[in-house]
Amino acid sequence: MGKLVIVGTVAFDAIETPFGKTDKILGGAGTFIGLAASNFNVDSAVVSVVGGDFPQEYLDLMTDRNIDISGVEIVKDGKTFFWSGKYHNDMNSRDTLATELNVLADFEPKVPEDYKDAEVVMLGNLHPLTQMSVLNQMETKPKLAILDTMNFWMDCALDDLHNTIKHIDVITINDEEARQLTGEYSLVVAARKIHEMGPKYVVIKKGEHGALLFHDDNVFYAPALPLEEVFDPTGAGDTFAGGFAGYLAKTEDYSFENMKNAVIYGSTLASFCVEKFGTERMLNLTASEVHKRLGQFKSLTQFDIELT
Amino acid sequence: MGKLVIVGTVAFDAIETPFGKTDKILGGAGTFIGLAASNFNVDSAVVSVVGGDFPQEYLDLMTDRNIDISGVEIVKDGKTFFWSGKYHNDMNSRDTLATELNVLADFEPKVPEDYKDAEVVMLGNLHPLTQMSVLNQMETKPKLAILDTMNFWMDCALDDLHNTIKHIDVITINDEEARQLTGEYSLVVAARKIHEMGPKYVVIKKGEHGALLFHDDNVFYAPALPLEEVFDPTGAGDTFAGGFAGYLAKTEDYSFENMKNAVIYGSTLASFCVEKFGTERMLNLTASEVHKRLGQFKSLTQFDIELT
Questions:
Q1: Residue B154 binned pLDDT confidence (cut-offs 50, 70, 90)
Q2: Domain with B87 in it: what CATH number?
Q3: A23 belongs to the catalytic site
Q4: Which intervals hold domain Carbohydrate kinase PfkB (chains A, B) (predicted)?
């Protein structure tokens, strides 16, 4: 079993959907990634920063799940990063109502000593220079470096993003961002162009339409589980990435074939995440529920045509 | 091996895409369905109508493929149905430039005597009363009646559509149409409502995002093959339906498990259809190409997670 180091926000979110709205609740990419990866009982550490206003009980939720938080800096006189958003009726688009960087503005990630030899590094969505700083702190080259990013960094830090992408193995990105990054509409062509930027593996997240994994000329398609109701999509992409990274850290098999399984695990965990507000569903998820839903994914996608 | 009777337009299309434009070429739902089904060497008949302007060579293309065209009425002094459309840059939406019903306006389908005991009936997109007329001509109840429709009939013949839908086993419909027909955004909920209208099986076509097959609480997801380039989407949905119907007529196994395979065959054939203008690719398709692409569909979707 490999070690997993995660960098990402640990934050407050306030979310409004057609089904209701929340006050400030636990959120952040690092949180969702860590919670998802914790389903695999890997040794993982979250590297992040919070303010003095961040409740101890939220930190305890992570340590309870065997997530090392020694790399979560607490700035006593600072305020925790806060994001607020409102989803439209179709749940496929949202407006950001507020983004208060607070302590995140001066965030300098520090990887715990014990994790500088981690096999897997998961770089959650942050400034590409912050992501690069984590990679630079690793004392042994990770077996797998995974990076998530978003259109914001393409708009305001494209050169830095290109420099960081060169050094990673897997990028996870949504379909519109893949198109923006490459100027290509076809996701097949976009994935090839992203390969040329560095990553050997490209995961394109298509929300309710699932996710594609590209490697050289190979492609794998994991659908999203068709759901009666998407209650809150917040964190689904990070949960996907956390499941993907956690499964690979656990199995230590970084082949394309095993990465298919990692994509399925990521999709499975993401299908739970959207059932409740924020992290609620992920905090109340049992191994037998995951096992049962994996079975649903199998019957959703597996067929029996013999090719001779 | 069962017999398959198909009703649908045999027509002229003129198509414009970002890649080019055509003059009047062979088109029509009945044509695409028939060509797709012919890959399974089933006994099939197309029921349709054309004008005196319809070239004999186009009819010969069908008889060459063992498609019975005795049910294709030729109205000597009439003109063939003509549709013209222009696709937008993303290829996911199009404008209809012209629809000339011509001989289709007075179309009264006549099922050939030999096909009044066909096991499978494929009702291509037409007025629901025309579709019902075909069902009414069957002397033995088909094992499987499949219906394709579109938003146009929901707008202008909704009651007739509801009456026809009651009598069919499988409906194929695209995602936006499923939402329009039911008033539900969630495709899971929409499929359940459509079940209640009659069809035991609901196939929801999502274009580049694949297709979903619903039956009671079971669901199967066939992705579309990610393509470098979609050259012309015209006929892809009909080709899907023709592959689906043809495979089921060939195997005579109408179980949910076998219907999964039928969806995969439909998706496979549709992935070829979009590679060239109109029917061009379907007219130059070999069994070994189909076989090879089925292999691609397997590696695209099959994974190896053992559940104990």
A1: very high
A2: 3.40.1190.20
A3: no
A4: 3-281
Q: Which residues contact B155 (CB under 8 A, 6 or more apart)?
A: none
Q: Which of B206, B219, B229 sits opposite A186 (nearest CB)?
A: B229
Taking residue A80's Cβ as centre, other Cβ atoms within 10 Å add up to 26
Q: Is A189 on the interface with B (CB under 8 A)?
A: yes
Tens-place pLDDT, residues B6-42: 999 999 999 999 889 999 999 999 999 999 999 999 9
Q: How many residues does chain B have?
A: 308
Q: Percentages helix, strand, coil for chain B, rounded to the nearest 5?
A: 40, 25, 35
pLDDT band, residue A223 (cuts 50/70/90):
very high
Residue A90, pLDDT > 80, answer no
For chain B, the domain total comes to 1
Q: Which residue among A90, A185, A257 sits closest to B185, beta carbon to beta carbon? A: A90
What residue of B is the nearest CA neighbor of A230? B186
Does any domain span residue A131? yes
Catalytic residue selected from A13, A43, A68, A238: A238
Q: What is the ipTM of this complex?
A: 0.90
Residue B182, pLDDT score: 97
Q: Which of B89, B300, B307 sits opposite A295 (nearest CB)?
A: B307
pLDDT in tens, A19-33: 899 999 999 999 999
User: Which position has the token pair 């992290």?
Assistant: A279
Q: Decide if A306 is inside a domain.
A: no
3-state helix, strand, coil in chain A (%, to 5): 40, 25, 35
Catalytic residue among B77, B148, B238, B304: B238
CA nearest to B293 within chain A: A307
B221 → closest Cβ in A218, A219, A300: A300
Residue contact B301–A301, C-beta within 8 A: yes
Say if residue A159's pLDDT is above 90: yes
pLDDT tier at B230, thresholds 50, 70, 90: confident
Are the CB atoms for B81 and B107 separated by under 8 Å?
A: no
| Residues 213-252 of chain B whose Cβ lies under 8 A from any Cβ of chain A | 218-221, 223, 226-230
Residue A249 placed within a domain: yes
pLDDT at A234: 95
Residue at token pair 């090879």 = B292
Distance of CA B276 to the CA centre of its chain: 18
Tokens encoding B250 = 């060939």
Measured CA to CA, the distance from residue B197 to residue B165 in angstroms comes to: 7
Q: In this predicted model, which residue has the larger pLDDT, A82 or B1?
A: A82
CA–CA dist B263, B273 (Å, integer): 15
Range(s) of the domain holding residue B131: 3-300
When scoring B305, B306, B307 by the number of chain A Cβ atoms within 10 A, the one with the most, hence best to mutate, is B305
With a CB cutoff of 8 Å and minimum separation 6, the contacts of A205 are A172, A173, A174, A175, A211, A237, A240
- Helical H segments across chain B, by residue range: 29-37, 56-63, 128-137, 151-156, 158-165, 175-182, 187-197, 236-251, 256-273, 280-283, 287-301
Residues in Cβ contact with A174 at an 8 Å cutoff, skipping those fewer than 6 apart = A150, A204, A205, A206, A207, A237
CB contact (8 A) between residue B305 and residue A261: yes
Nearest residue in A to B222, CA atom: A301
Is B306 domain-assigned?
Answer: no
Residues in chain A: 308
Q: Per the CB < 8 Å rule, is A307 touching B295?
A: yes
